[in-house]
Amino acid sequence: MTVTVSDDGTERQSSPPTRRVVQVMSLLVEHADTGLTLADIVRSTGIPRGTAHAVATQLCDLGWLTRRPDNSFTLGLSFLATSRRAARIDIVATAAAPALQALVDATGTPAFLAQRDGDAVTVTDHAGPPSTVVSTPVRRMALRPPLCREFVAWADASTRDTWLAGAPDDQRPRLTAALDAIRERGYSIERITDDHRAIIDALNGLAGAPSGLRARMADLVSELSAIDYLPDELVGEVGAVSIGAPIFDGDGAVVAALVSRPDRTMPAAELSTLGETVQRFAARASTELGAPTVI
């Protein structure tokens, strides 16, 4: 009986010819600077010589490989042109998109994807439940305290210390404890009390103010925001503007965060459940990027 691909994709028919093509192309990409002989390809892949010759010849005909005068093979112009187009694709955003939408579907809460870009974090995608008007989050923010904690909690000691050095002296003990708590539970929580929210609403009414004043307003918002929750504070009714969990790449570095935006108060147990849900979908995106199973 012939095995076919099922509708849900749980069974897939093996394709040795496709696997051999991928093996050959992957090998040539690794040796793009030097090229390889047919003997090199056979030795490295274990593909029979006749089959390897047929694969390489076909790839040359398609422009994905080029045969040099010394009969060695290197990457062809058609492949290089295709690779250049593919390089413009945002790999992190592509890997995280299904997890972002799945998070929104599971929670009924708007969410966004934030990506690390040097010393800043940029929102590159966002989504919300159907028939819901989703406001666009702040597009770009500096990687400075107390912001972007989920990007720093898993960093090495030197990176953490540099980030902490940007905070006022009296905030550093709290921030240090918050980073440890975030790493332990797996997600950050942006919290603002009702009193703080009233002040922020008043500040937002000055949107037409000069840029210098608006920058100071942003600083005030950060200062008014209580810096995350420590374990003994997650009791009773708690407020969460957003909950962010890290997305890791294949090297185990935090390259993005999946952020849910409940923007409401809720029982502490509900917040913990929501945080674990965000963490689970962020882990799904990490897996797509080849992250280690245990971070």
UniProtKB/TrEMBL annotation:
Span of domain HTH iclR-type: 15-77
Q: Does the keyword Transcription apply?
A: yes
Keyword Glycoprotein tagged: no
Organism this protein belongs to: Gordonia phthalatica
Q: What is this protein called?
A: IclR family transcriptional regulator
InterPro entries per record:
GAF-like_dom_sf, HTH_MetabolicPath_Reg, Tscrpt_reg_IclR_C, Tscrpt_reg_IclR_N, WH-like_DNA-bd_sf, WH_DNA-bd_sf
The protein's UniProt keywords, in alphabetical order, are: DNA-binding, Transcription, Transcription regulation
Q: Name one GO biological process term.
A: negative regulation of DNA-templated transcription
Q: Which Gene3D superfamilies match?
A: 3.30.450.40, Winged helix-like DNA-binding domain superfamily/Winged helix DNA-binding domain
Q: Which GO terms describe its molecular function?
A: DNA binding; DNA-binding transcription factor activity
Reading the lineage from the top rank, the first entry is Bacteria
Domain (IclR-ED) spans: 71-291
What Pfam families does the record tag this protein with? HTH_IclR
